[in-house]
Amino acid sequence: MRLLLIRHGQSQGNVDAIIQGADDPLTDFGRSQAHAVGRFLGQRREATHLYASPLVRARETAEIIGSYIGLAPALEPGLAEINTGEAAGLTWTAWTLANPEMAERLAAMDPSFDESWVGGESGREFVDRIFVAYDRIVTQHLGTDDVVAVVSHGGPLAWISAHVHGDPKEQWPHDRAVFVNCSISELEIDEEGAHTIGGWNQTSHLEMIREA
To answer: What is this structure's pTM?
Structure first.
């Protein structure tokens, strides 16, 4: 099987530097990015399955892509970004002023896996559900010629990247959090589950669009 990992298009929350929740929409530019991915995959005519996080920015990205490849996205909650609970909708500046100690730990890139966002989830809950979802998708298609597109977010994709690159699981994958909006990263996974990393964080399909 081949896995195509796609980050959602630019969201309004990306532009406004807010802590995003479930309902943050794409910007017009983010929709243009999603259309560019769709055209690219439509021309390749190889995607057989499409999964997406149910959060609006990822779901809308996947729906646009799906319109080019003839697939409706199957929503997978485990692919969602971390649930930030009561912090969702706040600017990072406002949240930092209200939560200086946790903000300091985040800035030092040393939050505890057991620390939770108020009203949200902990790092450990977040990581565990990502890999439950990832394993479920891979198991479903292992040993086939399926080409599986997955639309998710920077956090889950960073953890998946750390996993396939063999990074330690006991540390946050800050160095892997490099995915550009609507980039495509490719993995070949053989029938025994071994990974071969292909093109990573690819953006050539986005070169013809410009942000207004």
So the answer is: 0.95
